[in-house]
Each structure stands twice: as structure tokens, then as C-alpha cells.
Amino acid sequence: MASPRWIVLKFGGTSVSTLPRWETIARIIRDRLAEGLRPVVVCSALSGISNALDRLLAEAMAGRGEAALEGIRKPHLELGRAMGWTLKPCCALTLKSWSASRWAQRCCAR
To answer: pTM of this prediction?
Structure first.
């Protein structure tokens, strides 16, 4: 008997940004499994997060960026709450605690 074929399923942007979209992803995975396939699931950033990361880097390099960081944290925290996850204190990340400005300056210095 032949091994099941692998299939790569990639989701990102709006397709991973809400609970109903994740329910759709789960259905798609179940359907591929029922077809006898072996899915490999790849998830990229929530909608708008890649651009927000670019903004965060620019803001951090300028010595600010709390608002940009909050723009990244907020959609992730909201999605987690919608999924019924309990958030731990480690989610209280700030630029001050993370020292992103210094990190960005070291990593991006030319």
C-alpha cells in the first residue's frame, strides 16, 4: 500500500484573522485527511501584521514605537480571546521591557 501523498496548505492574512476563518481552515484540513492526504499546514501573519512589523521597526529605530507594537499585539490578543484562550502575563510585552529600540539599532546598524 502506498503512503499517503503530502499536500501543503498555506494560510495567511484575512484567512487566519478570525475564529470563523480558523474553523474553515480546520474543515479544509479534515477534508484533505478524509481524502487520504497528509496535510502540512503553514500559517503566515494575520492581516496587516507584516506591514505593522515594518512600521514597528521604523518606529523603534526612532526611539518610539509603543503604538506600533500595540497595533501588532491587539489583533493577536483579540483572536486568542475569540478562540477561548487564557492569556498569561507574558503577553504584557512592551518596547521598554523588550528593549526593541536597542535590538533594532544593533541589528540594523550599518
So the answer is: 0.71
